[in-house]
Amino acid sequence: MALTLKTIRCFLLVHLLMSTKASQQRRRHVAADGSIREYNPTTKKWVFIEPIEQTTTTDILAIEGRRFEYDFAQGEFHINQIPMYIIPPDSVRDSTNQKDGDTGRTVWDAAVVIAKYMEKNHHAMQGKRVLELGAGTGLAGLAAAALGALVDISDLGYCIPSIATNIQHTNLTQSNRTTGMATARTLDWTTATFDADHDTYDIVLGADIVWLEHLVGPLVSVMEQLLSINAGLKILLSHQTRSAATDEVFFGLLSKRFIIASIEKPEGYKDTRVNLFELTGKSVGGNISFAMLDNAMSGMTSEGDALSNRMFIQRLTNDASFRLRFSQALNTMMQRTGGTAVFWECATFTPATMNQPWECRVERAKALEGRATPDGMAFETHFKNTDHGTSIAFDNLGNDARLVSPRRKHNDTTFDTRYSHLAAFLDKAEDDELDSLWQTVGTEATTKMDAQESFWLSTDGRGVNWLHIRLDNEFGKYIKLYAK
């Protein structure tokens, strides 16, 4: 069940009040080399206090001690019957070189809980591309790999040698187990950029990854960037409250872009103060901008560099990778309407709006759900000289619109259900069919754009029972969502 921000606040506040640590202790840190530092909330820096006669590692007092005292160095903790090895680092950075307390050397309870949750739901991990953020020792990522996922385990540079060591010691190639693989990746949230061709992920993991307020913004930005290039992305968070103020900012920002749902903890871990959340991209009841998708593809970095109408048309026409990712993103949008069919429209294309941000709307189309077998003969006269599986453009009967429609790829008419409407086509069509449809739409739109013509791009489908994209010359009866 999706949680409101108010519910999340109350939910986390209860767990925060359960903490036994005094508030004065929450900003003091005893480093592994024995020095003491205190956090200054104004400068957002750790201030050196004094050295003490101590050589053992002490956890940050702001963070409640661990409950699950497995001997990770000896492989006591198992996932998928595979021992997870977390080897203590050979050396620890001097406190003057540490950043935000260097909390990445400890296996926190949140990593244990999310690992056991994934083990319980192991079928959901097999074959998935996974990124662990703020991994520290990398336990959660190693667990995902042990369950068959292909995992990038990421954190700041000082954690990477330890992560690599833990990957090396954890045997992910056992012949009697379905396992994946893991690699270490350096990732700083404050400077992170992503490439849509390479940073493709199904799941993002986060186990106790933020407790300092100044890191909330960069972390949420990373999550938003990843969502923008991975439309069906799922984020699993294993979270323990450290600061009510930080949680307020963190979940407040997340709630603007994500649906946040609380998920049940696995047996044996229900009484912990760790909470599990699943995040998915918000339902698109109104406008959707693909600005961040475009940023990732072209190297843009600012929100102001949104995908313009002109760029959208150009990419549909010339960029095959964009067409595929656009199909995937649009399919995810449509699935989130809760129906099996949709109406889809773009905002008006005119000479005056070509440099404005591109946007579209979708709405559940109950009138198209459960329709009879599509009419394969509807556009047969236009398809006669067209290759199977390709799309063509032609004038409608009233000569006031161009229609773009796909010809069936297979002679077997049992495949025709994919041509009922756009949602069915995006869900069931093969990649080359999707590519041909959107490239043809882009070519037709380019012709109108170059001729300085205004047009409206949409689908309807209630009149003819075969998928066709409309490029209307006039604002008419087929423009519903923007007319509202």
Task: Sum this structure up briefly.
With 484 residues, the chain is of the alpha+beta class.
Task: Describe the model.
The structure is a single chain. By secondary structure, the protein is of the alpha+beta class. Helices cover 28% and strands 19% of the residues. The chain has two domains: 65-281, Vaccinia Virus protein VP39 (Rossmann fold, 3-Layer(aba) Sandwich); 288-472, no CATH class. It is built from twelve helices and 19 strands. The longest helix is centred in the C-terminal third of the chain and has 20 residues, at 431-450. The model is unreliable at 19-26, 52-63 and 284-304 (pLDDT under 50).
What is the CATH first-level class name of the largest domain? Alpha Beta
CATH topology of the largest domain: Rossmann fold
- What is the radius of gyration? 26 Å
Q: Classify the helix fraction into a percent range.
A: 25-40%
Overall domain count: 2
Number of helices: 12
Low-confidence stretches: 19-26, 52-63, 284-304
What global shape is seen? elongated
The biggest beta sheet reads: 7 strands, mixed
- What is the CA–CA distance across the termini? 30 Å
Overall pLDDT score: 79
CATH superfamily of the largest domain, by name, is Vaccinia Virus protein VP39
Structural class: alpha+beta
Find the count of extended strands (DSSP E, 2+ residues).
19
Q: Tell me what portion of residues adopts beta-strand conformation.
A: 15-25%
Please name the CATH architecture of the largest domain: 3-Layer(aba) Sandwich
How would you write the strand order of the largest sheet?
Answer: 8-7-6-9-10-12-11
